[in-house]
Design brief:
- By secondary structure, the chain is α+β, with helices and mostly antiparallel strands.
- It has six helices and eight strands; from the N terminus they run αβββαβββαββααα.
- α1 runs antiparallel to α2.
């Protein structure tokens, strides 16, 4: 089988604005985590921030979505059938945007009976993908990600407070099927960096070069993703504690 040729992406002002929006949001989030900022970071710039390959459509910032008193970004994903909003924490939504930077995109995979649509992270070939739930919750390879009992199981909600992971042995004990091992967050990061290096190659550049238009190296990008996920996790924990204290 012939190897699929990766097309070079041209990064213009829109992409630079998207990168700046993500970085500014992460900076505000860091200030909030450290106590240098009292209010939550402003998610508004993230609503329209998009990289060229993005499959994220319109997005809105909402509060109190689906019974959870939590800041939420409701976004639509390009799909010929599924048109409903998917719900994200703003801090993890920033991560999703950055994952799309090197040609990645968010796709909706079908369940065996076309009953559910699972949001996943993929490249131009959607066969290799990483479920968003596992990226958000940082689920180990020996565990599965599940919704809380109060959820409907329809895979609309990707907010971390509504999700948890459970050991695959427990899943099997309950008589349910599961894979031996599954993908994890680290694998998704490696995949994103691979897409980045493929873009460098598509531009005729070495793996250590800077991506034209964004002036990022693969090392810069990997570090940015790692920091974004670290901040997103810390935002979740701090906001969870703050909500519990306030009742």
């Amino acid at each position: 089988m012939a190897k699929m040729r990766v097309k070079p992406i041209e990064y213009g002002q829109t992409a630079n604005d998207a990168l700046a929006a993500c970085k500014n949001y992460l900076q505000e989030a860091e200030q909030y985590i450290q106590g240098d900022r009292k209010s939550l970071p402003d998610p508004t710039p993230l609503l329209t921030a998009r990289f060229p390959s993005s499959s994220l459509l319109e997005a809105k910032a909402k509060d109190g979505v689906d019974g959870l008193a939590w800041p939420t970004i409701a976004a639509k994903i390009v799909d010929r059938m599924a048109k409903s909003d998917r719900f994200f924490d703003p801090w993890y939504f920033a991560v999703l945007l950055l994952l799309e930077l090197p040609g990645g995109r968010i796709v909706l995979n079908r369940s065996n009976h076309q009953q559910y649509f699972y949001a996943a992270y993929a490249g131009s070939n959607a066969k290799e993908n990483f479920y968003l739930r596992r990226i958000v919750v940082n689920t180990p390879i020996w565990a599965d990600t599940q919704e809380g009992r109060h959820r409907d199981g329809a895979h609309y909600d990707y907010r971390r407070a509504t999700l948890h992971w459970v050991c695959k042995d427990v899943v099997r004990t309950l008589g349910k099927k599961t894979r031996t091992v599954s993908s994890n967050r680290e694998g998704a990061i490696r995949f994103a960096v691979k897409l980045f290096k493929q873009q460098l190659a598509a531009h005729g550049l070495s793996p250590r070069s800077r991506l034209p238009g964004l002036e990022l190296t693969a090392q810069d990008y990997e570090r940015l993703l790692s920091i974004a996920l670290y901040i997103a996790d810390a935002m979740h924990e701090k906001h969870l504690v703050a909500k519990s204290r306030n009742g």
